Amino acid sequence: METAINQTFKTKATKLLGVNKEDAKISKTYLFVSFVILLVGGFLGLAQGLNRAGLLELPSWLNYYQVLTMHGVFMLLAFTTFFTFGYLYAGLSHELGGLLPKVRKFVWTAFASKIIGAVLVVIPILMNEASVMYTFYPPLKAHPMFYIGLVFFAVGMWLCNVGAFIQVANWRKNNKGKHVPIFSYFATGINVLMFFALIPVAIEVLYLIPWSLGWVKTVNVMVSRTLFWAFGHTLVNIWYLTATSAWYVIAPKLIGGRRWSDTLTRVVIIALVIMNITGGFHHQIIDPGISLPVKMMHVFMSLAIGFPSLMTAWAMFAVFEKTARKQGGKGLIGWYKKMPWGDVRFLALFISMASFAPAGAGGIAQTTNQLDTVVHNTMWIVGHFHLTLGVTVALAFFGISYWLVPYISGRVLTPQINKLGVIQTWIWTIGMIFMSGAMHTVGLFGSPRRTSFTTYGDHATALGWNPYMMAMAVGGTLLIIGVILQVYAVINMMFFAPRGETEFPIAEAEENASPTPYWTERWGLWIVVMLLVVAMAYVVPLTEFIVNAPPGSPGFKTW
Ligand code: HEM
Ligand SMILES: [Cu+2]
């Protein structure tokens, strides 16, 4: 009894303070690790950029492909994952009345598993035994420890997914007939998508382990690549959906407005969850052995994701305009004067959103067979995902950090750090315009990705790439300044900023909106639909790859 009273007292006390201390510790730890990884990953990126411009010769104990593998793994897998869970769990705790003790155990166990996994992955890379890039395509063969580390990392992600499911299910049990609050609804969608996307890659890794140990001699290359991209393509969209959650839920609050239609927001989430996994073959458009109709289906499904994305673009501008008009904004683009451009929390989110227009357009080009043959495996692709991941996703995460870190640390965002953040945002944007612009252009001229500095015996074409490589190095240099400022800001807000209370800025639903229909809560149904769509896209090609399999490949260590 007494503990029960204590418990309610504790909940009340933490409610008053705005944040549950134990939950804050979880988010703080995840975010701290995330930004340390960004710092290291940033320097690795810079090393690559300088090397490719011919400005930096890497030492023999750390060659280009080790750096590249680590940069990819750190940025695409680790920075993003740690940030996402720090962010989502802070929101779940805030909206659903604190995390359950059981859920906290899940999240801490997940943390341990991910750290063990990351260490196991990094050791063989440093030993030059795993230069297989973050895609680890067979027949390139890494040390078994690399794959075992990936398993630990994936288990960590799964535990975080399950923790979120338990938390949301518990709330639903206690709030029968109600809609899950919007941030937690986003969190549910993101976790559902991640939970299922991890299954194909886990199967892949589990059969690569005996192969890398030498117990099995050969491996089916096409099956591996397909299982990888069913995950890899979805992962990218998981980070996109995470960024989107801030645009829909947080951005309207920061400008003093209200959210866009609650029903349609939930429909966008459901659509992204159902259609995502099925675009994987657009990464394999040039791969042999996939029949044309199957490729076409994946292209169609990839383009289908454009639909909820366009809905998002529409929604955001509708919110800006509506809010601005209420505040007296006039004319077609008058909203633009009313936006808080000097507020880093908004500015970063806005640029993150705006960058998705060119990023998405480039993506549509790559999804088209004929156009992709021009840019496939060139620097164009690297330019593309530094826009999608490096701006749309990373800048959204940076923007979120300016209120999330003070919120969980019981501190406030000072005008100085806000100013620093605005400068950081512009440096990052300009750096990425330089770097990504140069990458896109030089890719059109044929410069390959994943290739350390070479002039191909002073071949004229290769020499023609050099000015762009210089622009890339300039962009990379600006970006590393951006990384340092960002990490400094996070450390400051976490440990040194003045104490005080910061709000978790969740915007309210529109006034006099019609009630959201309850079918949006039928996750069981949406998951079944998703699995049917996935089956439609993958059963036939995977069966074909296995039944009509060519001879398997032994492993190669090309480095
Ligand atoms: C300081 C900032 C950064 C710099 C200077 C940088 C630079 C580079 C360069 C030069 C490459 C490609 C090289 C090649 O293909 O040979 C690369 C690859 C890559 N970058 Fe970055 N990058 C930065 C930040 C980021 C961020 C924030 C992300 C994602 C969140 C990211 C994700 C990736 C990925 C996934 C690859 C592909 C690795 C591969 O092909 O295996 N980078 N980066
Ligand atoms: Cu994709």
UniProtKB/TrEMBL annotation:
Gene3D superfamilies: Cytochrome c oxidase-like, subunit I domain (1.20.210.10). This is Cbb3-type cytochrome c oxidase subunit I. PANTHER family: CYTOCHROME C OXIDASE SUBUNIT 1 (PTHR10422), CYTOCHROME C OXIDASE SUBUNIT I (PTHR10422:SF40). One of its GO terms (biological process) is aerobic respiration. InterPro entries: Cyt_c_oxase-like_su1_dom, Cyt_c_oxase-like_su1_sf, Cyt_C_Oxase_1. One of its GO terms (molecular function) is cytochrome-c oxidase activity. SUPFAM superfamilies: Cytochrome c oxidase subunit I-like. Pfam families: COX1. GO terms for cellular component: membrane. Keywords: Electron transport, Membrane, Respiratory chain, Transmembrane, Transmembrane helix, Transport. Residues 12-497 form the Cytochrome oxidase subunit I profile domain. It comes from the Bacteria. The keyword ATP-binding does not apply. The chain crosses the membrane at residues 30-50, 70-90, 106-126, 146-170, 182-209, 229-251, 263-285, 297-320, 346-365, 385-405, 426-448, 468-491, 523-540.
